[in-house]
Design a protein that fits this description.
- This protein is an all-beta fold.
- The protein folds into two domains: 60 residues, no CATH class; 55 residues, no CATH class.
- 0% of the residues lie in helices and 41% in strands.
- It has no helices and twelve strands.
- Strands 1-7-5-3-4 form a five-stranded antiparallel β-sheet, with no helix packed on it. Strands 8-10-9-11-12 form a five-stranded mixed barrel. A two-stranded antiparallel sheet has the order 2-6.
- The mean pLDDT is 96.
């Protein structure tokens, strides 16, 4: 491709609410922590490596028995979401503006669990009941 030599009508879409194909056999619950797995399909957060935190599921989709991409799900991005704080590995005030890590589709932890957890995002705030996390 060569650089533009005239104006271009570049298409645009809002990237705050996006549809993504769902991973095979994934059960996604509305309000759950959404990730993209190693092959790029949407799945619920879990303790695993090579997951990309993507936002919050806006609906429920059950792809049990389905192949990768058989269904799509809406995921909200670009916000801070409120997740449960892992009791055995608490995110604390000292962790604000640092990464926290995915435990499951509603829980985050302060550490990577000895190299077993993917990054959930950056801690925005912590209170007695949970953690505000901005997905990367």
């Amino acid at each position: 491709m060569v650089a533009l030599t005239e104006d271009r009508n570049t298409k645009m879409q809002d990237a705050e609410l996006v549809a993504q194909p769902v991973a095979a056999n994934a059960v996604c619950h509305a309000g759950g922590l959404a990730v993209l797995n190693a092959t790029g399909f949407a799945a619920p957060g879990t303790t695993a490596l090579n997951l990309l935190s993507f936002g919050r599921f806006e609906q429920a989709v059950d792809n049990t028995g389905g192949a990768d991409g058989d269904q799509e799900i809406l995921i909200r991005r670009g916000k801070a979401f409120y997740w449960q704080n892992h009791g055995a590995d608490l995110v604390a005030q000292a962790n604000v503006r640092q990464n926290c890590f995915i435990v499951d589709d509603q829980t985050v932890a302060a550490t990577n669990g000895a190299g077993t957890r993917s990054i959930a995002g950056v801690v925005v705030a912590v209170d007695a009941n949970g953690v505000w996390v901005e997905a990367p």
